[in-house]
Amino acid sequence: MAKSFKVGIIGSGGIARGAHLPGWAALADQGVEIVAVADISKETAEKAAAEFRVPEVHTDYRKLLARKELDAVSVCTPAALHREHAVAALVRGVHVLCEKPLCLSGAECAAIAAAAKQSGKLFMTAQHQRFTGEAQALHRYLSDGSLGDIYYVHARALRRRTLPAVPTFMFKRLSGGGPLLDIGVHILDLAWWLMGKPRPVTVSGVTHDKMIRKGGRIYNSWGEWDPKKTDVEDFACGLVRFETGAVLYLESSFILNMKERSVFTATLHGTEAGASWPDCEIFGEKHKLVTDTKITNVNTKVNAHHAEVAAFFEAIRDGKKSPVPLAETKWVIAMLEGLYHSAETGAEIRLKA
Asked: Domain 5-127+305-323 is classified in which CATH homologous superfamily?
């Protein structure tokens, strides 16, 4: 690897400025240099460039990719654009870290995988929840099969009144969907990863837009919206069945009427014990005595976004496999796409390899 590792950022708004730009900037002492940002909004790109001292600004991502010296890019654009930008970067011959959800369909995922294979470059989906201290600790604890046969998992990504009332989250042409794709993807990926990534075989899902249709008639801490100008769901739930016989129940919402402001949890239930994330508790039994155990040396100060970027960079530097490989993301996208299809048809959907 060259002494200086040059990075470009495609899409320089919220997630870029909150996660990718500071994540890459934190690696400056390892020779990482952010050389360019691109965004269709020149103002957004210039603000990001000024904040992180990036020398080049583009309103066309293709001009960024045309830069002679470029080693990797972070794709931080709306989900509906991920396939286009990721494939273009791979064809250009650079490593790619792409925000979640990776894409909107299995077909788009296959296109990215084909481009990654042909380019020979490292590709990683930015599922940063895997890199929290709690996730890393619990994954390590469960790695020896201490829960026994995991047969039921409950994954919840619920908010009471925090709908992102901006076009990139409220129009399918940009987001691809509502909370199922935005926050549901996080907890689904994490829970599936913690349970050992069994192969999913069928999904059955339901979506609703009852609350989002109320628009400005209800309180929302992130602003008001016109219900006539949005076409995403505000609630989704579904059941995933795996080839092991295990099932996972998923719930996701931005504006659910519930007591808590936010619930973001995963509980795993096995024949020997149960476990919960993020509190890292284990629920078991010994000598017919019921026990509750808590992992106490969890590193809770980890910045998961920074750790995610660092893991991607280190994999490139050390010639390792992707920390979040496409082969895994493929199944996450298949489950999400299947849940939407099931909600539309009212039928259980069998997933294809």
From this structure: NAD(P)-binding Rossmann-like Domain (3.40.50.720)
